[in-house]
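Conserved archaeal protein (Hyperthermus butylicus), 245 aa
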Amino acid sequence: MPITKLVKLLAVKSIEHAIVIDDGIIIGVVSVKDVARHIVRAFEAAGSVEALNLNAILGDVVASIMSRPPYVVSGPLDYCRAASIMLSKGIGILPIVDSSGSFLGAITELDYALQSLKLDAQASRYATGKVILGDPDEPIIEALGRMYEHGFRRLPLRVGEDYYMATMQSLLLAIARRPHMETLLEKAYRYSTPATILDADTASIANAAETILSIPERAILLRSADKISILTERDLVRAYRDEHC
């Protein structure tokens, strides 16, 4: 599968990771971060946007950018053990295989949103307080580079008194749909959406989980009188582990 088709598939399914299988055996895992890394490194090697051949870059096959060998576990597996593994390894999907290596299923960060719908712990306890804000005038290629450098998949933007959320997925989809130099130089803000904001003093993990499940950005902002923090699906994994395990 070419990378451009992968990006569109992930966007349609509103997911950020995919399992790569050959003849029933899992051979790799690929994510939006892998795609972003591929484009950012190609840009750095080229030295300029004008020197990039986006059609060639996006035409590379998934196998050329996937993580291999993938980190897998064999069942049975409970959510507590899976959460500890995912957090310690820094991964967003945990494939499960049988004794022969055949793919059986996977636990993802979104599963923990589903598992957290009854948690009444305060959401702000698990949010990231030091929020890096992007520049609304920043072009797509620079925003992607910033996200890749810091290791996150969402970039909050502030425009006046309003907040927006750009995601790695939305920026990659823009590039895949229109693989031209001009796209890389478009403002990332154009492909952002108004951020979903909850009250930091009253929002529970259950509130946050329900909201995250309902929006494609999979992240919310928490606002108090003098502070903005961000909570993502990965934070829900940590909340589940700490509250349940």
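The two ends are 39 Å apart (CA to CA). The mean pLDDT is 94. ok done for today
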